[in-house]
Amino acid sequence: MKRQAVGFLAAALVACRAGGDRAAATDAAVSMAPADSLAVAGRGVEIWFTLSRPSLTPDGSPCTDRAIEIRRGGSRIPVPLLYTGEAPRIVNDSTARAILYTGCLAGNAYLVDLRSGRPTREPR
Question: Quick count: other Cβ atoms within 10 Å of Cβ 114?
Answer without folding.
Answer: 22
